[in-house]
Amino acid sequence: MDVFAHFLWSFALFSKRKDRWIAGLCGVLPDVLSFGPYFLWEINTHVFGKPDLNAIPGYVHAMYNVTHSFIPILLVMITIFSITKKFYAPLLAWVLHIIIDIPTHTDKFFPTPFLWPFPTPYFSGISWGNKYFMLINYTALILVYVFYVIPNLKKLKKVKTKN
After folding, report:
1. Are 112 and 32 in contact (CB under 8 A)?
2. Is residue 98 within 8 Å of 114, Cβ to Cβ?
3. 141 touches 9 (CB < 8 A)
4. Residue pLDDT, tens place only, 103-161
5. Against a cut of 0.85, is the pTM above it?
6. Long-range residue pairs from 9-13, CB within 8 A, at least 24 positions apart, any chain
7. Residue 105's closest CA among 131, 124, 122?
8. How far apart are CA 161 and CA 27, in angstroms?
């Protein structure tokens, strides 16, 4: 799924919480950490559209493996919990990112290595870049925001102004 949609789904999931913006950021971190440095490096020469897999450096693939696996994020969550003795809920948006990517990536272009470093059975889903998928995804996001997120934010604002 595209980075913007990952943010919107993560924010929607956490819309009733104070840390919804942090959750939104956690929801995009897997892509930002794996593709961000490469994108910034290539921004002047980047051609929009699907890039050639062979042109993408190995470090991007390595970071993608790390950031799109349940194992490293589970280790991060356990580490944070062991230090703070508190569960840091916004990191669940990172988990959501991985769950969303499994069926929205094909085995031809960045399949989701959700069990890395262990062997992962890749699921060849529907590409998030498919125009019909994009239409359905953003229609669903609009509906979720109109009927769930915006009403929740208005309720939170009313409660906050009463206090």
Report:
1. no
2. yes
3. yes
4. 999 988 889 999 999 998 888 889 888 999 999 999 999 999 999 999 988 887 776 66
5. yes
6. 9/96, 9/100, 9/141, 10/93, 10/96, 10/97, 11/149, 12/141, 12/144, 12/145, 12/148, 12/149, 13/92, 13/93, 13/96
7. 124
8. 29
